[in-house]
């Protein structure tokens, strides 16, 4: 059986990792909560005139919040 070579990290991988680490080190601890509050405030202020496809935006926000929760739970303190 042929041994597979370990995957080399590309320059893009390193740039993404560095950007993620910088974000984790510099974002305020309240960032995720503030962003959620901002979204909820926007929804409450504009509930009668939200875009038709706003539910699609909410899926993207949910994914972002899941990422922020993971960073908060396992990230750099």
Q: Can you describe this structure?
A:
- Helices cover 68% and strands 0% of the residues.
- By secondary structure, the protein is mainly α.
- The termini are far apart.
Q: How large is the count of helical segments? A: 3
Low-confidence residue ranges:
none
Rg computed from alpha carbons, rounded to a whole number of angstroms: 18 Å
* Averaged pLDDT: 86
Q: Largest sheet at a glance?
A: none
Number-wise, the strands total 0
* Order of helix and strand elements from N to C terminus: HHH
Helix content: 55-70%
| Beta fraction | under 5%
Helix/strand class: mainly alpha
Shape: elongated
Gap between N and C termini:
43 Å
Provide a brief overview of the structure:
About 70% of the residues lie in helices and about 0% in strands.
Write the layout of secondary structure elements.
Blueprint lengths: L10 H16 L4 H15 L8 H21 L3
Defining key terms:
mainly alpha, 68% helix
């Amino acid at each position: 059986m042929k041994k597979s070579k370990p995957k080399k990290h590309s320059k893009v991988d390193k740039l993404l990792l560095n950007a993620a680490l910088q974000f984790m080190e510099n974002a305020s601890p309240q960032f995720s909560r503030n962003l959620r509050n901002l979204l909820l405030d926007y929804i409450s202020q504009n509930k009668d005139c939200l875009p038709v496809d706003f539910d699609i935006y909410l899926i993207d926000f949910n994914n972002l919040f899941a990422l922020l929760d993971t960073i908060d739970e396992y990230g750099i303190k």
